Amino acid sequence: MDTQTLDFITTISRSSSVDVAWTSTTRHMESLGADTVNYAFGPVDNLAFMSTAQPGWIEHYMQENFDQVDHTVHHCMSQLTPIVSGAEYNTKRGDIGERALLMMRDAEQVGIKTAVTIPLRLQRDGDVGGFFFGTDQNTKNFMGLYEGVSTQITLAVLYSHTIIQDLLRQEQANAVTLTTRERECLLWLAQGLNSEQISDRLMIARITVDTHIGSAKRKLGASTREHALARAIQLGLIAL
Hints:
This protein is of the alpha+beta class. The chain is 59% helix and 13% strand.
């Protein structure tokens, strides 16, 4: 492993917060040639998103619903291989639609001409995302750059992804406090017991069990009991 990557790993490993880790990541990516860096990861309906792009571009992207036609987004949902993109690059390939090309031409106006997006995963069902390494270079110059630093980019992205997700979980866990009864109800729920059976085990009324589980759902931002259980486990609030 090269010295630059080792120095980055050492630095980001000492991060005390997500913001510190993100700053280390963006600085390292810029040293490798990036002009714009984006990171998105999590459940499809609740992605954590960070970016160095111009705020006006992000707003424009969302207002135009470009996420619906952005082929790199769809690629990250189903694939694990890096994908290169850009108006010039994809025009030559003829592999995307007009709306997607319009998005890329608009991106060129804010200094994003050619990029590589690296799909990301962790060992949790439903979580997807990607890391975007964008440049203001044409296809030829970008491919020359990427050939020389692709391994460094990939290693840094994967390490940064792990660190940021660990820090996010810590911050989220610190922001949520479950009562003893809420944790007990979730633990019995994890064993496959229903509300009636949990009430028998804890010797409390069934409605009290439902109240504790409902409270835990609200605190965890969960839509179902199962979702609440998964979130509590993910945040380290309960251990099976």
